[in-house]
Specification:
Elements (H helix, E strand, L loop, with lengths): L16 E4 L2 E8 L4 E2 L5 H4 L6 E5 L4 E4 L8 E4 L6
Antiparallel strand pairs: 1-2, 1-6, 2-3, 2-4, 4-5
Length: about 80
């Protein structure tokens, strides 16, 4: 599997602030890469197998199968795990 990337070619990581489907929020897990935030652990979400989870500022949790270059853009970088 390839790592999810923005249209700019940059990799998507947990804690990134993004705009997706018109909402601003934070990436809480990137499944292909095995990056999971403490609140959204691998044990709960790895069954999805691909994509990423996004928590909007409105409190809506959404799973995306892939980064859609038309709808998902990086606002700012969070702390990226090593």
């Amino acid at each position: 599997m390839t790592s999810p990337r923005y249209a700019t070619g940059e990799e998507l990581h947990i804690s990134d602030r993004v705009i997706a489907d018109g909402m601003t929020g934070t990436v809480v897990c990137v499944i292909e890469r095995g990056e999971y935030s403490a609140a959204y652990p691998e044990s709960a979400w790895s069954y999805l197998e691909r994509g990423f989870m996004f928590m909007s500022d409105e409190g809506i949790l959404i799973h995306f199968d892939r980064v859609d270059e038309c709808c998902t853009q990086l606002v700012s970088r969070g702390t990226t795990p090593n």
